[in-house]
Amino acid sequence: CYTYFNSLRRLDFMEQKTLSKWLKCILVGVGVCGLIVFAAVIPMYGTAMRTMYPEFSNRFLPWLIFLWISGLPCFTALAMAWKIAVNIGADRSFSENNAMILRRISVLAAGDAGFFFVGNIILLLLNMSHPSVVIASAGIAFVGVAVAVVSAVMSHLVKKAADLQEQSNLTI
Question: What is the distance between the alpha carbons of residues 129 and 122, in angstroms, rounded to a whole number?
Answer without folding.
Answer: 9
